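Async update (no meeting this week)

Hi team, since we skipped the sync, here's where things stand on the single-chain job. The sequence we agreed to prioritize is pasted below, unchanged from the tracker. I ran it this morning and attached the output directly underneath so nobody has to dig for it. Comments welcome in thread, and please keep replies under the output.
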Amino acid sequence: MEVDYLILQVINEVLYGIRAIKLSAWESLFSQRITSLRSAEVRSLAARKYLDALCVFFWAATPVLISLLTFLTYVLLGNHLTAAKVCLGVYCYYILIVLFLLAFGI
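Output:
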């Protein structure tokens, strides 16, 4: 957020003083300043988007992992797993997810 403000400040400075910048041949100096600030902004946005992608992945993968761990635990405890039990378990998890989404408005 701070980088965005700095970029706006520099671009505003360039726009207000464009004649002085052109007459003094400072285009490259201001171009370098804007480019370095833009690079910092892009790095910040990239980090934020990678974190967002990771959150989306875990949001999608968590129900599958929980289901697999539940069925694995059920089998390791010595119980017999049938298709009916798997379907019922998956359906129950689906209902829990829908209730969670409705309750928290996500």
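Quick observations from my side:
Residues 15 and 67 are 58 Å apart (CA to CA).
The chain is about 90% helix and 0% strand.
Reply here if anything looks off.
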